[in-house]
């Protein structure tokens, strides 16, 4: 039997654990009576993670001291016992200054910001005064907040989930994007810091490591939670193993599951109470009704009996084939409700671009193929030589807009495909368009002979049909339906040729050529 | 309140429905007391699907008559009332002959095969005699069994899940493959038949349509279940909306969810009782322990109190990035337990092939890039002109082996890339290898100038590095981690060039060239 320790469980209940057959004791929140947990450990109850870990984590100041001693990068901090101490901290760290409660702080509770020395006193008062135990943190000038769910097994094996971005609103988690759209090196650094932080704690289970990404590319630890966490809710739908199953695997000593994502992208939106009572429920139900119309959206309603403003009442996770598609779906759910709230149409997966409208009679064939296979795409004029800025912005933003591939056609000194390929990590297909001289050989060589480092997938001169077919094959590498349709296309083509062969054989070439 | 009607619920319980606030009555199995359901309908209880549908489906003979009247293709059948009738059916349909109970038949129970007229009597006896209501079906010479989960909303909107293949063992569902590996046209045909079958029934909910695929490409209806079904268990992990959520959406009149797959491939394995009692539990636990070590495997244990041979005790669904990968994982789980049971290693995602070992000094660069990005791949010699049969079998089997892309290098009359592209729906990257004459222009034109219909993604002459990078971009179209790493690679390359630029600027060109 596993027993999950909640904050509401009393010491009496805990003492009764010895009487039931408790295989493992774990926690669903860190704000539990840790002294009791320690006594239970002494009596042989198997606690995962260990009481020592809970003791460190439930006091945010102790947590900072602990991680600082283990060489984990984190914002400067110091304990304060009175207003003088707070002022000294302000002189040292500057303003704005974060003042935090050491205990029972989460979802923005227990944090206060003093923008200047004058605000120190009221900030301290809002936190209940020095008696509750306060400390200050130097303001971390972060550009993004990241988080990593880290799992440690009983054998101390550690696996990390993909780094996510957490977007907060009034200090409460609002949206989680998985994976975080940050450079790969930043993701590696964030994973490394999270791994190191969890390595310094004792016991098995899921840990959530919240991080700051600063403008100079540093990763600083914010705090750690010793349990499944809001930043990992998306894993239920988007990862091979959800954080909840993973926590059970970890504390029970089962093999850890694969933490990687089974869908390319996910976004989680917290359903926070927007109003008290019935009106709040009414607004939440409106949002849920909207979510039920969004493809890939999964509604979780916690069925809490009481609705309060800013209370986490549930969440919606949207998954999809790319972050662009997922964002469009999220926008569509949130029209008129914050986020960027643009109404979403089906976002294009492929961009077909060409240097001039004179290329259109050739390039239209790529669009015809994509339409035939039902692949949403856009067709644009983007010239390397006449609209270089447009070319740069088009290529640089393509991935974030949700494009998965670009088909670029150009003739002569055909720079468009290669330049676009140098500005995006997406695959780029180049179509050499026959120019007025050289029969298109100039276009072909300009496109295919790219330097080492930047490939362009080049097709035959003027053969935009093949560019479209290649694009379908490329998307098909991760989409079995599209691949099955490509097989069918090949089968149909074969049958068409065989029909002609049969006609030639039965009629003879003379009548075939002169029907 | 929704009430799920199970076979075990008594008429008394049903009559009490009127006293509780029952919003919708639905069924978890078709073997319920349909007369009571009809009376409840008359009294205004909202049943979804309708009692009329349950009445048709729970009698397999009536079901066949119903679908036959609605023009759904199905094997020939006829009612039999005595041995003379059975013999007449045998004369008409030939042997082997399927004899089936009209009622309470599932998981192979209620079916018997007579291989000859002599076996008719014992087959009938094994089914409990004519008194139970029997009919015969002409043996369907199927090559595969397929199934489609179809959902109908209260507004009669219909959506279909992807067609799956069901593999039976002793008439019990053993393995489900999603999507079915059959031609696209067969999938469309199967969906159409399933859609038409469900359209002919009344009421909302999930329906499972079991089908036969015959050797001549026909789809015949086997039977329909008016509820979530074993062939749809994979949807829990592999589809945007599980069949269970979908059933609730349907019967409640909520918008139907997206039925498409969020992972490219899934396989479901039924945990059937292998033995009675404790030994049976022991064997099942062994299998579960194995499953917990398999990436992408999800264990479902139904916690049934009693273990019996061939009883469905749970199931395991394995999902992954391609059917090849999922099959390798399934093999690894089932080593020594049937299926094909080969021990699995990490299956390659990319095949690098070349016409001759003389191409290896060029082609090795593609392998170096793939290794750098951590993409599992294989390197093979496959010559179009000297091993044409090997080339055909390699290309034709590539997709089923789990390859997602092929890089082919060749020189001179370079036929390998184009021939391979004509034999597979996968994307093929061609590397023109410089030949002894013509500076590789022969290789380039042989590879890039493919006819309309069969594209090869051609890179620069001898530039296998770019072939590797293009392959990473192509897999990255569906894999954000790989795409993020490609961005990082571009960033690193940029920094390297900028360092050189700085050095040139600070040292001047003379000292740069003569350090």
**What is the helical fraction of chain A, as a range of percent?**
25-40%
Biggest sheet layout of chain A? 9 strands, antiparallel
* Spatial extent as radius of gyration of chain A: 29 Å
Q: Which stretches of chain A are low in confidence, meaning pLDDT under 50 for 5 or more residues running?
A: none
Beta-strand fraction estimate of chain A = 15-25%
Q: End-to-end span of chain A in angstroms?
A: 84 Å
Quaternary structure annotation: homodimer
- The number of helical runs of chain A is 17
* Strands of chain A, total number: 20
What general outline of chain A do the C-alpha atoms trace? elongated
Helix-strand makeup class of chain A: alpha+beta
Mean pLDDT across residues of chain A: 91
Largest interface (CB < 8 Å): A-B, 77 and 77 residues
């Amino acid at each position: 039997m596993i027993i999950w320790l909640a904050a509401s469980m009393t010491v009496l209940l805990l003492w009764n654990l010895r009487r039931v057959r408790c295989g493992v004791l774990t926690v669903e929140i860190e704000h539990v009576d840790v002294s009791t947990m320690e006594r239970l450990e002494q009596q042989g109850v198997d606690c995962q993670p260990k009481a020592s870990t809970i003791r460190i984590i439930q006091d945010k100041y102790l947590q900072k001291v602990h991680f600082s001693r283990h060489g984990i990068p984190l914002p400067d901090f110091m304990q304060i016992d009175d207003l003088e101490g707070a002022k000294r901290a302000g002189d040292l760290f500057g303003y704005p200054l974060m003042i935090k409660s050491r205990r029972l702080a989460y979802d923005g509770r227990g944090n206060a910001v003093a923008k200047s020395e004058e605000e120190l006193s009221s900030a301290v008062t809002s936190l209940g005064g020095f008696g509750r135990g306060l400390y200050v943190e130097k303001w971390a000038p972060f550009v993004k907040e990241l988080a990593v769910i880290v799992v440690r097994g009983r054998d101390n094996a550690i696996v990390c989930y993909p780094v996510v971005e957490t977007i907060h609103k009034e200090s409460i988690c609002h949206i989680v994007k998985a994976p975080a759209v940050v450079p790969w090196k930043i993701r590696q650094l964030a994973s490394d810091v999270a791994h190191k932080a969890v390595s310094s704690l004792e016991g098995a289970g899921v840990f959530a490591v919240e991080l700051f990404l600063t403008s100079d590319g540093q990763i600083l630890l914010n705090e750690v939670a010793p349990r499944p966490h809001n930043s990992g809710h998306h894993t239920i739908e988007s990862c091979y193993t959800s954080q909840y199953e993973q926590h059970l695997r970890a504390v029970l000593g089962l093999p850890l599951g694969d933490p990687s994502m089974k869908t390319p992208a996910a976004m989680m939106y917290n359903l926070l109470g927007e109003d008290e009572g019935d009106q709040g429920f009414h607004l939440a139900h409106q949002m849920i009704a909207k979510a039920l119309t969004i493809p890939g959206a999964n509604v979780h309603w916690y069925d809490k009996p009481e609705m309060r403003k800013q209370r986490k009442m549930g969440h919606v996770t949207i998954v999809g084939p790319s972050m662009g598609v997922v964002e469009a779906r999220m926008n569509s759910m949130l029209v008129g409700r914050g986020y960027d709230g643009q109404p979403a149409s089906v976002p294009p997966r492929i961009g077909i671009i060409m240097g001039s409208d004179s290329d259109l009679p050739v390039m239209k064939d790529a669009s015809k193929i994509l339409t035939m296979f039902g692949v949403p795409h856009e067709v644009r004029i983007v010239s390397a030589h006449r609209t270089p800025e447009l070319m740069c912005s088009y290529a640089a933003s393509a991935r974030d807009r949700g494009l998965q591939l670009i088909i670029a056609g150009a003739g002569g000194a055909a720079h468009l495909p290669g330049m676009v390929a140098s500005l995006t990590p997406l695959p780029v297909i180049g179509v050499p368009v026959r120019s007025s001289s050289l029969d298109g050989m100039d276009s072909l060589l300009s496109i295919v002979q790219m330097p080492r480092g930047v490939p362009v997938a080049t097709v035959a001169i003027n053969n935009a049909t093949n560019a479209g077919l290649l694009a379908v094959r490329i998307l098909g590498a991760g989409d079995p339906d599209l691949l099955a349709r490509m097989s069918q296309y090949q089968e149909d083509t074969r049958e068409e040729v065989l029909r002609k062969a049969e006609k030639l054989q039965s009629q003879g070439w003379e009548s075939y050529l002169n029907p």
